[in-house]
Amino acid sequence: MPDSPDPEANDAAQRDFAAQRESMVTNQIEMRGVRDPRVLDAMRAVPRHHFVPAFQAASAYHDAPLPIGQGQTISQPYIVALMTEMLELEGDERVLEVGTGSGYQAAILARLAAEVISVERFAALAQEARERLADLGVDNVQVVVGDGSLGWPEAAPYDAIVVTAASPEVPPPLEEQLAEGGRLVVPIGQRWTQSLVRVRRKGGRLKRETTISVAFVPLIGAHGWQQRGETRL
């Protein structure tokens, strides 16, 4: 029979992961200017190692993105925190996430908003994310499978929308599904390099601001990119 789990070893591992999260927040996130205390608390609380393949757990808190399968990645911790802060969440919002991936960003959003709808193109990733979120007792995230560039009109409008893949332009359906006063954060640009853009809807008008340079995997869909090597739809 296999050896029984060692409770003391498990406790020690969890303490080590907690220390790594604290270091991640202090040295990777706060030092780069993220200040929202609710965002920082969420980054401290959510076990990032739970959202990467087991063989990547030792690297979960490194200052870098990590592969999660299907050609997708879990974003660098700082970028997750920055994009979350840019949404300016207060706790009562309905949020749309485009690109569930491993479910990590959704778990962060779940601590900061009332409801999260997360759209993932790959059914296998969506199911894995559901299972990870359920393991942590997260019950205010709905993970659905679909073309994220179309948004999820069934639950629109949204107070905040975050897109975790790069698009050549802001997908019009996402702008249409943004509520009055809402914020949309999305990487916009070329296939391999983009700028992080925030769009606000105010008085029926859309105001855009461009921030830092980033590099995300491409958003595949009707208002994103086609499969690799092909031109835009």
Assign a percent range to the helix content: 25-40%
Largest sheet: 7 strands, mixed
Q: Kindly, what is the distance between the CA atoms of the first and last residues, rounded to a whole number of angstroms?
A: 55 Å
> What is the H/E order?
HHEEHEHEHEEHEEE
Rg over alpha carbons: 17 Å
Strand arrangement, major sheet: 5-4-3-6-7-8-9
Query: With helices defined by DSSP (H or I, 4 residues minimum), what is the helix count?
Result: 6
Name the structural class: alpha/beta
Mean pLDDT: 93
How much strand content do the residues show? 25-35%
Oligomeric form:
single chain
The beta-strand count equals 9
| Silhouette | globular
- Low-pLDDT stretches are 228-233
Describe the structure.
The chain is of the alpha/beta class and 233 residues long. 29% of the residues lie in helices and 26% in strands. The chain has 6 helices and 9 strands; from the N terminus they run H-H-E-E-H-E-H-E-H-E-E-H-E-E-E. Helix 1 runs antiparallel to helix 2 (37-45) and helix 1 (7-29) crosses helix 3 (77-86). It is globular and about 55 Å long. Mean pLDDT is 93; it is low at 228-233.
